[in-house]
Structures are given as C-alpha cells and as structure tokens.
C-alpha cells in the first residue's frame, strides 16, 4: 500500500521470512558458522534454538540455500508422539503419500526414498520446526533417522529447530538413539541494541530506500526499547509506523506518530494514558554485542509486558487471552468487529471450530463448499473485519500439486476479497504448499490434527493445541487491523472537523462581506 509513497520497490518489513533480507549481525554470522561447522563434523542431528521471532527459520533457509541446488530441503511441523504419523508426514513432504501404517514398513520406505536421492547426488536436510513440542517417541524416531547411513554417508541431515526449552528436553531423555552424535545445542540471541538501527537501515536499503531519515534517531532508540531486539517485533512495529505515516502523509516519522503506533499495537489506549515512556532514558541498559548470555540460555526479557494477548499464570505458563471483538460504537473508538469464515470439509473439525470460536465470542460462519463461501461473501453486509480460515484441500490436490479449480478459487479470493486475511490449514503441511502460498503473499499455514485418524483420547488435546495457534493468529490480525481501523476513523474525523471549520469560516466571511467586496 505505502511502497510508492516512500519510494520503495517492496515492503521492507514484510513478515514473510525472506533470505534476501537477512541482516548479518555478529550473532547471525556466528550461527551460520556453527551450522557450517556442525555439518562438516557430521553432527547429526543438529539442534538449533532461539526465542520466538528471533529469525531461526530465515537463517536456516539462508544457510541451506547457500549449499547449492543439489540440496533437497524437507521442512515439517509436528507436535505429538506418534512415530508412524511423523514418518508419514516426512514422506508426504517429499511428495509420497504412503498407505502404510506399519512402523517398520514406513522406515524402509523412508530409507529407500532417501537412498534414491543420495544416488542422484542430492543430499537431504530435514528441518523439524517447533521441535520442543515433540514427545519422547517422536524425538527418538528423529534421532533414528539421523543415524541412517549408506557406505558411511548420511542419508539425511536432521536439524531440530525450536524454542530454548528443546535443549533441556533433549538432555532429560536418557534413551535417545543419538546421544553420541548429537550436536551441542545452539541458542540464537536477540539483536543487541546497537545493531537494531543497522538492521532497520539494511531492510530499508534492500527494499530500495535511499533516504534513511524516515526513522529519526529518537524513534530508533524507542524501537530498540520496545522490540527487545526481536526481529519479528521490529518488523511489526516498523511496518505499522510506515503505514501510519502513509495515512498521515508524513515521510519522516515523528515521536507522536510512534507513540500512536505503540499504543494501538500493544496498549489499545490513548497516547496520553497508555504510552509508558517519554524517552528511552527509562529503558533498561542496552545489550552489548560482546555481552555473553551463555549458549542455550534464554535471555531474561524486560518486565514490561508489551504483548496484550499474553499473560503469565501462576504456574509460569503463558495463556492466551480470549479474543475481545465485541462491537462498540466505532465513533467512540470502539473495537473493530470481526467475523470468521471457516471453510472446512471435515464435519468434526468444522463443528468443533464453530463451537469453540463462538465460545470465545467470535462471530463464526462455518461452510463446507467453495460455492457456499462465495455465495455467503456476496450476500454479507457486515461492516467489520472478515477473516477466512480454509483447508488446503480446497486449493491443492493430494501431495500438494496444483489444482486448477483451487487455483481459480484462490485467484478469486485474492482479487474480489483482497481485504480479507486468509489462514490456510492442513492436516499434513507440505513444503510445496507453503512455498506456493508464500509466492502469493499468504504467510499463514497452520498444521491441524486429522480428527478422523486421531485416537479419541487425543482428540481434545490435539484440537486445543491447534486452536491455540489459530487464536493467536486471529488475535494478531485483529490487533493490527484494529489499529488501522482506529487510525482511519481518527483521520476521517479530523478531516471532517477541518472541512466543517473551513465551511464555518467561509460562511462567516460571506456574512461580514455580503456584497462580495
């Protein structure tokens, strides 16, 4: 939206991981050196950890891309303890839909396919993302995969990527099959304060910006404080700042504009009541690039909670607040109402999603066909935020191949309903699907359980885990669109006020000078 206004060729703070935008901080260079060293030492598996939003995914993709086109990348997300499901997911990511349910048969099938790739001169890297969610059996199966060899050569290099607690989980399991070959876990640190302005300017330059004064020094200092050096938060704040600047017709960010962004994104209050700092002099001391927090140790965040969606319970666990989407008078600064459209073929999943969303106070419309979706959208007259949660099978054939009817449906959604955020869900997420969605600018692909295959005792647990991820996505979407909504209402109200004042001045002038002289 704002690229032309600022003279960019691209959105510099796009949330989609893009190796082309990677900033090589000392920490990132150290991480790349670690990966290179462990691959050369034939450590298997490699354990790569970091906090949420620190850039693990983009860094891994950058490293593997540099290895050359002969590398076969397989990336999966799996949370569970089922060896069979883990192996079937890996096969499906490689384009093989196995009908096997026997563990030994699946192991043979995986080994045969990996061996074929190796004979073709292609080395396979398997990234298991969010690996801290794997239970003992699944972790052990991943270790067994890492030990597969032919003539002294690894059939697959396994990378376990996840949050810092992954390290503790691995060390707590004494029976893992790879205790002697596993790499020392690596912890990717947040950016130090002195690198955050360099990170922002690097992304601006990559997007074609030549005038970096758009972010003055005082604003940069505040971004350092509020982002805590987390690249995902930096991107979210900077993207919102540029959008607000576009609305306000300001090509240089002011502190008042920055404060509006922070309050709209995090506090949902007025600038005067919500913004907690006048200057960054109240911020904690900067983190130095030379300061060592210890490999594998999580940095302690500042005490200020900038995430309005997350609160800490007494047991130390993070819970997600219920979505607050009640419609109030928008002219009085109320929240943006939201309607969720659920497009789902599986009746059990459709009913559970509809019930759970309504329990959380979200207006929900559950549908089972594309025809019903488009008919409903055309009839809808709701003046709020529409979000579509759709199963990938409506757009892609089995195995992730293109489906002509699905392609037409996606084209129509992105052209006729471009205002509507889209979250795609899949029981077995495929790398090929993820890539195609990214190319379309659709970054959200969530893994969900197949309720027709999950044991009844596990249905509730697995569904709740999926719904928590979905709820977090919806909360973030609602927060950002709500901020834009409030900003637009304020802009329109201010514009109407200026217009009304001009008309009053004009009428007053006519009364004082009726003859026109």
UniProtKB/TrEMBL annotation:
Domain AAA+ ATPase residues, every copy: 42-220
One Pfam family matching this protein: AAA_22
Molecular function terms, GO-annotated: ATP hydrolysis activity
Span list, region Disordered: 277-321
Record field: compositional bias (Basic and acidic residues): 304-321
Name of this chain's protein: AAA+ ATPase domain-containing protein
Native organism: hydrothermal vent metagenome
SUPFAM superfamilies per UniProt: P-loop containing nucleoside triphosphate hydrolases (SSF52540)
